[in-house]
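A reminder from the course coordinator: this example appears on the midterm review sheet, so study it carefully.

Given structure:
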């Protein structure tokens, strides 16, 4: 715990402007708090920004992952593969559908799903006749995965691709915005407060597939339709509706959507500041016994997280000691992520130590430093100073 009275620098924090407050207040004064026009406007704003045909707003990225799996036909007996270096929702979405989950190890440089490991695993699975129906690459920390290579593998092996871009709105692959679905069937964004853009809680699915978008919209509202063309019987009653599928109440509110549209205006500004801070970290931390994150030349990261790896053989301190020391100095560092396959729920399904050795080694050394829009250069200097003290450097 930090010393009494010491100001704490969090690892992440939302940025709310007067324009954001005004946008939300306007909705509160309107006739629509949910299922109103602000949702459609937000969806159009995001789809236009990313150059995607459809955007479907939902109350969380977890809901977005779940409905994406359902819309792509994932069901009991199928397999979904994902990176183990992610939040549990990237895997849990398959279990919600009754499907099986398997994990792919990570690239030691980007900490994203390893394309080489994926290739090898797919080749083995093809021989056994147990190929995945869906693969979920996770754009960890805002750094996009090697999507062209993954898209090629999807064509070769016939699986669908769900980009978990919860960290990566505003990021780019080969000069195209993440979310354009050029290399995937759908892309999922998160708008949780620690993310780059926030709606409080919230998520969104982007897709260029008309049928997938239509099913997503049906599933987010209980599976209920008011479209006469979709109903099982004709009716002239204006109140008529039918539940034609088992759906969910996964809707976003107009309050959230209004905040999202307002935040989106500043998204490029948010990312520009994060890029500045990331580059500044690179300069300030050079020479310390740590491994710094890297950005692949074909992508532009949105820098949701800034994760260092502590070289304990050179630092002579453990990750836990660095973590405790920095928090005592008022810097609320964090750890992203405990490998999903090591969580008790997935251990009970047969996974354990040694299954994804690169991710397990990464986890033992990883530490997330503060990175958010409002972090000042002087606050960043305090973070760097606290890290130097923790490393005795």
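Designed residues:
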């Amino acid at each position: 715990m930090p010393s009494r009275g010491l100001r704490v620098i969090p690892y992440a924090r939302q940025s709310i402007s007067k324009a954001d407050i005004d946008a939300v207040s306007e909705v509160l004064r309107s006739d629509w708090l949910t299922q109103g026009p602000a949702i459609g406007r937000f969806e159009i704003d995001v789809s236009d920004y990313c150059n995607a045909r459809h955007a479907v707003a939902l109350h969380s990225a977890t809901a977005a992952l779940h409905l994406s799996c359902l819309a792509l036909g994932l069901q009991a007996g199928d397999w979904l593969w994902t990176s183990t270096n992610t939040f549990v929702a990237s895997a849990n979405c398959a279990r919600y559908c009754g499907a099986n989950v398997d994990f792919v190890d990570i690239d030691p440089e980007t900490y994203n799903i390893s394309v080489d490991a994926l290739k090898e695993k797919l080749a083995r699975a093809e021989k056994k006749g147990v190929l995945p129906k869906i693969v979920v690459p996770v754009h960890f920390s805002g750094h996009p995965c090697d999507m062209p290579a993954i898209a090629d593998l999807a064509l070769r092996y016939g699986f669908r691709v769900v980009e978990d871009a919860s960290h990566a709105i505003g990021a780019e692959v080969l000069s195209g915005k993440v979310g354009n679905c050029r290399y995937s069937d759908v892309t999922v964004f998160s708008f949780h407060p620690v993310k780059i853009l926030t709606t409080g809680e919230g998520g969104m699915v982007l897709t260029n597939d008309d049928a997938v978008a239509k099913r997503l919209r049906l599933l987010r509202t209980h599976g209920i339709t008011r479209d006469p063309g979709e109903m099982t019987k004709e009716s002239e009653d204006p109140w008529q509706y039918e539940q034609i599928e088992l759906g969910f109440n996964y809707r976003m509110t107009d309050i959230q959507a209004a905040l999202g549209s307002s935040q989106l205006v500043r998204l490029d500004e948010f990312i520009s500041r994060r890029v500045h801070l990331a580059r500044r970290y690179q300069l300030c931390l050079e020479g310390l016994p740590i491994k710094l994150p890297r950005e692949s030349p074909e992508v532009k990261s949105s820098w949701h997280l800034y994760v260092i790896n502590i070289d304990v053989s050179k630092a002579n301190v453990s990750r836990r000691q660095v973590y405790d020391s920095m928090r005592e100095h008022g810097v609320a560092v964090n750890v992203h992520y405990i490998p999903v396959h090591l969580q008790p729920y997935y251990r009970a399904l047969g996974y354990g130590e040694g299954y994804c050795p690169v991710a397990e080694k990464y986890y033992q050394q990883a530490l997330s430093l503060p990175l958010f829009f409002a972090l000042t250069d002087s606050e960043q200097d305090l973070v760097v100073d606290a890290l130097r003290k923790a490393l005795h450097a």
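The first strand starts at residue 54 and ends at 58. The CA atoms of residues 307 and 368 lie 4 Å apart.
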